[in-house]
Design goal:
206 residues; mainly alpha; Arc Repressor Mutant, subunit A; Tetracycline Repressor, domain 2; 2 domains; 11 helices; 67% helix; elongated; disordered C terminus
Length: 206
């Protein structure tokens, strides 16, 4: 795909996320095109119907998660630091419109999207590997697993409206505090023993 075509595609997907976050999954395609700064014809050439656009939104989102996780893991000094950086990145409110829009859609929307499922599985496996490395390094408490990390991301990225107002106003602070509770020192201070880790098996969208 040419660079200009990729930029148009990214603009449309990001605009669709923002519009659907504001207006719901039934937002007019014309409004999405206008927000993206492209013609309606360009939008329909890329996405012949709403389902095609939603599929692209889901794929774009999980692909961005995988890329961000890889970046954090590569540049961080250790696995725990990389994990923390990634979760804070994913929970940033400016990035949450797409996650929130996708979370409003029924799970059935994504059941038959093979590429979405493959990409999601790959990033979850990478995340699980990072969690296990952080635990092996003694930085992350052993009774916290990948599913717990995904649940935390799901709350802040996909369902920010469910947060108390004072938490929603300062998400980075409270997400950071919750991450601190996953550190090995927190378990030692509380006197908690080790537990299972386990790969995530839930149906959360992130």
């Amino acid at each position: 795909m040419r660079a200009d075509a990729r930029r148009n595609l990214d603009k449309i997907v990001e605009a669709a996320a923002a519009v659907m976050a504001e207006r719901g999954a039934g937002a007019p395609m014309e409004l999405i095109a206008r927000r993206a700064g492209v013609g309606v014809g360009t939008l329909y050439r890329r996405f012949p119907d709403r389902n095609a656009l939603i599929a692209a939104m889901g794929q774009h989102y999980v692909h961005s998660l995988a890329e961000a996780l890889d970046r954090a893991a590569e540049r961080a000094p250790d696995a725990w630091s990389g994990l923390r950086e990634f979760v804070l990145w994913a929970g940033d409110p400016g990035r949450g419109a797409l996650a929130a829009a996708l979370a409003e859609l029924p799970d059935e929307t994504f059941l038959n999207m093979a590429e979405f499922a493959r990409t999601r599985r790959r990033w979850l496996e990478r995340l699980d590997g990072l969690v296990r490395r952080a635990q092996a390094d003694g930085r992350m408490r052993p009774d916290v697993g990948t599913e717990d990390v995904v649940s935390l991301m799901n709350l802040f990225a996909c369902h920010p409206d469910s947060l108390p107002p004072h938490v929603a106003e300062r998400p980075a602070r409270f997400l950071g505090l919750m991450l601190d509770g996953m550190k090995a020192e927190a378990a030692e201070a509380a006197g908690d023993g080790p537990g299972g880790t386990g790969m995530v098996t839930g149906s959360s969208r992130v």
